[in-house]
Design brief:
The chain is mainly α and 86 residues long. It is built from two helices and no strands.
């Protein structure tokens, strides 16, 4: 089967005319960050209210924990042992 040899020659673009790859990536990042910022402003979350609900939920979990003396459980912290080992 004969191959088509009629591929047009495209001369290379001079290096001065091509943008630097890092510059292209920076431009893409900048456009994406602007778009993300616009979306966040359009759909603003009530962060203060969400934070209050989160803290209330954590306080509820802490209040349910049994403590005999009202102090946090310090087992494993005596004698310089910081816990988490092994």
């Amino acid at each position: 089967m004969p191959q088509d040899q009629s591929v047009a020659f495209v001369p290379p673009v001079p290096a001065a005319a091509q943008p630097h790859p890092l510059g292209v990536l920076t431009e893409i990042e900048h456009r994406n960050s602007e778009a993300q910022e616009a979306r966040l402003r359009e759909h603003a979350s009530p962060w203060a209210e969400l934070l209050v609900q989160y803290v209330d939920a954590l306080n509820g979990l802490i209040a349910k924990q049994p403590h005999e003396d009202g102090l946090p459980d310090l087992r494993g912290l005596e004698d310089g042992h910081a816990g988490g080992c092994g």
